[in-house]
Amino acid sequence: CSNLQELPDSLGVMPRLEKLNLRYCQSLKTLPDSIGDKKRLSELYLTNVALVQLPSSIGSLVELKGLWMFGYNKLKSLPDTLGHLMKLEKLDLSYCKSLKTLPPSVGSMKNLVELYFNFVDIKELPKSMGSLGFLQKLSLQGCNKLVVLPDGFDNLTNLEKLDLRGCSSFRKLPDSIGNMKSLTEILLAHTSIELLLDSLASIREAKRNTKLMNALKYLKA
Predict the structure, then answer these.
(1) How much is the mean pLDDT over the chain?
(2) Residue 210: inside a domain, yes or no?
(3) Quick one: pLDDT at residue 14?
(4) TM segments (predicted)?
(5) Which of 79, 95, 123 lies at the terminal end of a domain, its last residue?
(6) How far apart are CA 77 and CA 216, in angstroms?
(7) Domain total for the chain?
């Protein structure tokens, strides 16, 4: 559908639609407000779509569990209503090169399990991310302007994997990283981290987490 430029407002007359695949619709710049009428929609694929903006009505997709928007779109911001997607489990915003930040409302997506934000020119993450208690995978690969992780990051008690590869400006892990008992994999290749925190080795929970310590020890040289 590379020549598709717009979707009809009548899209909203299909209330039973559960999956919408618009991948590679490279001429599509926006979605109709009626997209929010699809109360049963659980999967929305917008990969490599030339989106300029998302309608605020996207927050009405109360059953949405997967939203894939990775690719070379022109999104500069996301609507605050994104945080209304309370059942969302997977969100992929990789390669959204014009996107500079995430809305604070992202912290309201309590059921989010996987967040992919690779190769985006983001400088910081919202502090509200600490509210994503079910998050298990966070991938920030290639975010070369990211310097630190937000305060409260250690509240992600179910986080298992953190990917910071290629974050060339990233210099320091938070002191509380050793308190994250579920964290078993941290990928730090090609970052600016010179030394691991001395406190990491002294934290009891981190000592018990053999896999995590083995994954990180090569950085302590």
Answers:
(1) 85
(2) yes
(3) 74
(4) none
(5) 79
(6) 34
(7) 2
Evaluate whether residue 88 is within a structural domain.
Answer: no
CB 14 within 8 A of CB 35: no
Alpha helices in the chain (DSSP H): 198-202, 204-208, 210-216
Per-residue CA distances from 108 to 44, 126, 133, 161, 170 (Å): 19, 12, 10, 21, 26
Beta strands in the chain (DSSP E): 19-21, 43-45, 66-68, 90-92, 114-116, 137-139, 161-163, 185-187
Other CB atoms within 10 Å distance of the CB of residue 221: 6
- Domain extent, residue 192, equals 113-221
Same domain, 207 and 131: yes
What is the model's pTM? 0.86
pLDDT of residue 166: 94
Q: With contact defined as beta carbons under 8 Å apart, do 86 and 112 qualify?
A: no
Are the C-beta atoms of 91 and 114 separated by less than 8 Å?
Answer: yes
